[in-house]
């Protein structure tokens, strides 16, 4: 990966201590992982578990031991979040009142190939770990798409299996994909978004969405369902098909470092509050933002980045159910599934590293 010759200083030791000990992460998510079992809906029969979902993801491409199973390619980033106090109307979480909260994050692209070409990735992602001065953590994993393709873990599993490349053609089996679309017609809405929405030409000018809803609990006990987004202060610039064909394989990382050399990058945290009747437990259905209460709660400022191979974000599981007091999970089944699958992925890559099965995960542009 070609980077500018004047990189930012290394991430501070304080941020490197933000990740919980490896055993501690497993303990935190154990309850979620144990609960991630469905008795019906699995295309092949039997229970649908986090293990089965990771097996399906792994079966859709070459193995890359030691790397994340999804969003394998990315960069570690550091910075701070500055709340403006407005978020306290919705949540008692300390991050909304502390003047400056240190942030350890990761910017990535979708897909399971840690060496994929950036220009071929439709989806961009931002994961953050915010740790307030009372020791509580808020971890969030956001994506550039505004809604999920399916509403349930069973639907996601069906999509993964239908997308599996046929060894003879290298492409999904048309008959299996047609059967999937017949069973889950809601996917066509996501497909339309993917075809029509412009691609961004930088991580820095991309909007990232929580997609799932969460319960925000105010100091007086009032509960509201909220989705949020990180909205870039950098002007959006599209990446057209010609540019995608000409772009360097690591152009997003190169662009990120070049922009940071000029100064911090900023996003506004906007909280969107559900109205009565909104589908708070279905991440495949968007809310009409223009007609919903929105709260600008503060600003994320990123000041540094480094390759993830030995970066501070490498060993962080960005489990979206690690939440501070004042924020709680909704009943969205996809949210519980994400937590359990992240845990399963984390445990597998840690075992691979411990067994020496992942030589490519050391000293390369990828990470665990």
Could you walk me through the main structural features you see in this protein, from its secondary elements to its overall organization?
This protein is about 25% helix and about 20% strand. The chain contains nine helices and twelve strands. Strands 3, 4, 5, 6, 7, 8, 9, 10, 11 and 12 form a ten-stranded antiparallel sheet that branches. Strands 1-2 form a two-stranded antiparallel sheet. A hairpin with a 5-residue loop joins strand 5 (about 125-130) and strand 6. It starts with 12 loop residues before the first helix and ends in a 14-residue tail after the last helix. Residues about 1-45 and about 365-368 have low confidence and may be disordered.
Question: What is the percent of helical residues?
Answer: 25-40%
Proportion of residues in extended strands: 15-25%
What is the fold-level CATH name, i.e. the topology?
Answer: Catalase HpII,  Chain A, domain 1
Give the termini distance in whole angstroms.
17 Å
CATH superfamily: Catalase core domain
Radius of gyration using CA atoms only: 20 Å
Q: What is the string of SSEs from the N terminus onward? A: HHEEHEEEEHHHEEEHHEEEH
Rounded mean pLDDT is 86
Domain module tally: 1
Oligomer: single chain
The global form is globular
Main sheet?
10 strands, antiparallel
List keywords for this structure.
single chain; 368 residues; alpha+beta; Catalase HpII,  Chain A, domain 1; 10-stranded antiparallel β-sheet; two-stranded antiparallel sheet; 9 helices; 12 strands; 22% strand; globular; disordered C terminus
